[in-house]
Specification:
Strand order of the largest sheet: 7-5-4-3-2-1-10-9
Largest sheet: 8 strands, parallel
Low-confidence stretches: none
Number of strands: 10
Structural class: alpha/beta
Bound molecules: 1,3-dihydroxyacetonephosphate
CATH class: Alpha Beta
Order of helices and strands: HEHEHHEHEHEEHEEHEHEHHH
Shape: globular
CATH topology: TIM Barrel
Radius of gyration: 18 Å
Mean pLDDT: 97
Number of helices: 12
CATH architecture: Alpha-Beta Barrel
Number of domains: 1
CATH superfamily: Aldolase class I
Distance between the termini: 27 Å
Length: about 300
Amino acid sequence: MKTLRECIKEAEEKKVAIGHFNISNLEALHGIYAATKQVSELAGYQVPVIIGLSEGEEEFVGRHEAEALIAEIRENDNYPIFVNADHHHSFERFKESIDAGYDMAIIDEVKLSIEENAAIVKQCVAYAKEKSKEDNRDILVEAELGFIGSSSKIRDKIPEGVSEATMTKPEDAKHFVQATGIDLLAPSVGNVHGMVKGGNPKLHPDRIKEIKEAAGVPLVLHGGSGIADEDFTEAIAAGISVIHINTEIRVAYHDALKKFMEENPDETTPYRFLQPGVEAIQKVVFARMKLFNNMK
Ligand code: 13P
């Protein structure tokens, strides 16, 4: 079985992106995995997928429970499905997820200055290296540079503090990667977390290309929800290797459940009233994964 590092390297070479999808519950995991298998069947090979849990999602699902579920699928089905501790905001939280067996973790201290951010990220990288050696694992560490707003939700406008002027600068990316030793970098390139009513801003593929050349590590695009298909395609061609989607999954699940409950107010069996939510998630993820993997 390929490791996550090998899957990302392969995505880089093939100029495709691995989908990273967040979950808040078991239904989302089922919907995402069903879509992943559907895409794999079309592709004729196993398309890797990453399941992400933010601190809040991890608390709701259970840190250990999520890791155990995903590791069980990976081992039982011999399938490249991985789990990421998404946007962890302290060394302590980062460490807890690594200790719980997560394949990768994102330390997000983007609110700090670059140097303060780099110091904490460096500490996380050192810990992940030590733990990888101790447990014979290959834990990946990702960090963010450049603010893109926080929380996955529908927004009235672009989050405060995000503008073209605050996009990641290639020279900062180079310095940050060298200073920290991270495996993956999440830059700000026009992307924002969440879906902006009236449309998300356009991405900047030229900036992605410059950052990729300067940083020399795989790049991750956060804030994937609401981005136009052609923007994704350009971003992948410019050097994005992993793409995060969350809000679109939340909205699809919410809307499907709401509709079903309105139409069937007396249905009290969870596996009946939750099923439309699973199917709605599967549909969203299937379309995104096909696009990220250059499939028609
Ligand atoms: P969206 O909610 O915009 O899809 O962003 C998700 C994300 O980047 C999670 O890390």
